Amino acid sequence: MKETFDSDNRLIVNGMILKHRPVGEYDFAVTILTMERGKISAFARGARKPGGKLSGNVEPFCYGSFVMYEGRSSYNIIEADIINYFEPFRRDLEATCYGTYLLELADYYATENSDESRLLKLLYLSLTAFTKDCFDKRLVRCIFELRALVIDGQYPGFPERRNYSDACRLAMQHISGAELKNLFTFKLSEEALGELVEITKIYRDMFVDRQLKSLDMLATLENGSL
């Protein structure tokens, strides 16, 4: 997406807050996955002040547009127009565990000053699918992880050396090749889903070279099925 600037020559980016941490007494340092500049870090001055202009608008899962000044070594957020707060991830423990894991994994794969538009769209669609009861959250998680590998250029394809079912093979073909908007259009039997979870774990162990903090809680939630 082409970058835009407002009348004061301030940069406007569209994206999602992946994480934040307190800085000083009133500020947050945030990480945003943006459509225009990939993953960026920025300061949100006064965001921890009750009633502040940015209060509540630089929390994880917030998706919208952010107006910021670009300094020599950092960005400073001035305004935020949030389109979707993804409220279910703030109220429900299970949803929080799954959603936080996706944010952390997106943070792992994303890089600065690169085209991360597909990863951002995948993240948004996956979080949206999590909020719908018709989707098994384990399947949504697998779809995100495998398609993220495709986007990152590391996806190894279907494992030919194991006797997995045709349903699992077809599911992986769909995950790796379908348009993003059509990813979440199928269901799997418990047996085929178990195979997909197993393959996803194998690939995660192969390609993710650090411990993800949110994975431990998610593993407990899924009774060790990770």
TrEMBL record:
Assigned protein family: Belongs to the RecO family.
Q: Which UniProt keywords apply?
A: DNA damage, DNA recombination, DNA repair
InterPro entries under this entry? ARFGAP/RecO (IPR037278), DNA_rep/recomb_RecO_N (IPR022572), NA-bd_OB-fold (IPR012340), RecO (IPR003717)
Q: Which gene encodes it?
A: recO
Residue ranges of every copy of the DNA replication/recombination mediator RecO N-terminal domain listed in the record: 14-86
Stored SUPFAM superfamilies: ArfGap/RecO-like zinc finger, Nucleic acid-binding proteins
Q: Which GO terms describe its cellular component?
A: bacterial nucleoid
Q: Which GO terms describe its biological process?
A: DNA recombination; double-strand break repair
Superkingdom of this entry's organism? Answer: Bacteria
Question: What is the name of this protein?
Answer: DNA repair protein RecO
Role of this protein? Involved in DNA repair and RecF pathway recombination.
